[in-house]
Amino acid sequence: MTVSTLAAVDNQTRPGVTERICEYQDLGRVAYGRAWDLQREIVRRRKAGDIPDRLLFVEHPHVVSMGRNAKEQNVLVPREVFEKKGIDYWETDRGGDVTYHGPGQIVGYPILDLRDWKRDVLAFVRALEQVMVDTMAEFGISAGRVPGATGIWAGPAKLGAIGVHISRWVTSHGFALNVSTDLSYFGYIVPCGLTRPVTSMERLLGSPPPQEDVKRALARNFGAVFERTMREL
Q1: Closest CA to 104 of 34, 162, 23, 185
Q2: Rounded distance between C-alpha atoms, residue 116 and residue 153, angstroms
Q3: 95 close to 67: Cβ distance less than 8 angstroms
Q4: Which residues are within 8 A (CB) of 219 and not within 5 positions of it... i.e. 6 or more apart?
Q5: Known catalytic residue: 192?
Q6: Listed residue (66, 72, 166, 59) closest to 121, CA to CA
């Protein structure tokens, strides 16, 4: 029995405690704009109370996205280069600077009502980091935090990034974990505005783990950290 399931069973045995459900769904490869539209629709439904919390897993085709605080100088090539290389480009409402998404990377979009957890943006970001740190430990990777830098790191290299948006305490956007990502694409930008190297699970382990295994571990640890019973759609 998983940690999240145990927590749910314990909650059911205590009077006045309601089981908290989070549905999770693997959408496969989805264009960035389509995924953003889907997030907004789920956010609308979550705010209305029509659905429980939800965690989406996607893999994006090559795309560079700019956060609300992104600086143009952190894009190192003219926009025409993106077009030639087949890299999409989006300006978004998430926090953070510029980042890259692409094949071999697991992107997680949690749509949570933080009123049912903690009304604390920093605690939410730190919890997302913990989900990735705990997941990496299951695959034998020692990952952690770097003071003053959001995300997770393996030594000096960034392994997972985070950029979120919160509206009326409902979250969107989320985290990106490099599994077998072609890291050369990060060379077109200054990832998250930090001139530090990036890495992947494949580079650290010598071969990539199955993405399905990583997603299952992420969902399990998400449930444990956020005290949710995870249900797959």
Answers
A1: 185
A2: 29
A3: yes
A4: 24, 55, 57, 230, 232
A5: yes
A6: 166
User: What's the pTM?
Assistant: 0.90
- Separation of alpha carbons 223 and 231, rounded Å: 10
Q: Which of 35, 192, 217, 224 is catalytic?
A: 192
What region, left, alpha or beta, does residue 214 occupy, with left being phi > 0 and alpha being psi -120 to 50 degrees? alpha
The H or E element that residue 223 is part of is helix 211-226
* DSSP state for residue 18 in the 8-state scheme: P
Question: Distance between CA atoms of 179 and 159, rounded to whole angstroms?
Answer: 9
Q: Quick: pLDDT tens for 103-140.
A: 999 999 999 999 999 999 999 999 999 999 999 999 99
CA dist 120 and 130 (Å) reads: 15
Task: Determine how many CB atoms are found less than 10 A away from the CB of residue 16.
Answer: 5
- Residues 60-84: pLDDT tens digits? 999 999 999 899 999 999 999 999 9
Closest CA to 25 of 224, 227, 218, 221: 218
Instruction: Read off the tokens for 107.
Output: 């992107």
Please return the burial class of 164, using the count of CB atoms within 10 Å of its CB with bins 0-12, 13-18 and 19+. buried
